[in-house]
Amino acid sequence: MTIYIASDHGGFKLKEKIKNHLVKKGFEIKDFGTHSEDSVDYPIFAKKVSNAVTKDSNSKGILVCGTGIGMSIAANKIKGIRAALCWNEETARLSREHNDTNVLCFGQRILGEDLVLKIVDVWLNTKFTNEERHIRRLDMLD
Ligand code: RB5
Questions:
Q1: pLDDT tens by residue, 90-119
Q2: Which mutation among 7, 8, 45 tests ligand 1's pocket best, with the greatest number of atoms within 8 A of CB?
Q3: Nearest 5°: CA angle at 128, between 124 and 133?
Q4: For ligand 1, atom 8, which residue shows the shortest CA distance?
Q5: CA atoms in the 13 A half-sphere facing the CB of 138
Q6: What is the pLDDT of residues 16-56, one digit of tens each?
Q7: Closest by alpha carbon to 92, among 67, 51, 127?
């Protein structure tokens, strides 16, 4: 599976931590930037990751900004993207099981690194339940 990842300046440091964590675990990573703490506009990066995820069925996306809110709003505007701003392992697990989320968002100002890496692991290791009621609701979103 390929993980497409990006951040704005407000999420740059956490994005690098997540990327290193996933590289160590053997995931193929494509980093769309940003590559420093110089100010940039988060919608551009959300769009790059979201478009890549919609074109690659064996992929997921991770987006980081200061709060995670701008990234999640921007990603969810792209058809086919179900982006979740998760704040603990339970929301990460349920976002996969019930919502089949394909993009995970974080706020660097909001959560500590250790918790973020746990959330990433749970999210990547949890499958969609494929239950009829959840499929029906996701179809409604489309
Ligand atoms: C950038 O200052 C900040 O607004 C951005 O990182 C994010 O928090 C937006 O939702």
A1: 999 999 999 999 999 999 999 999 999 999
A2: 8
A3: 155
A4: 66
A5: 21
A6: 999 999 999 999 999 999 999 999 999 999 999 999 999 99
A7: 127
pTM of this prediction exceeds 0.85? yes
Q: Which residues have a catalytic role annotated?
A: 65, 98
Rounded CA-CA distance 48/103 in Å is: 12
Residue ranges around ligand 1 (CB below 6 Å): 8, 10, 42, 65-67, 69-70
CATH topology of domain 2-141: Ribose 5-phosphate Isomerase B; Chain: A, (3.40.1400)
Ligand 1 mean position, distance from CA 66 (Å): 5
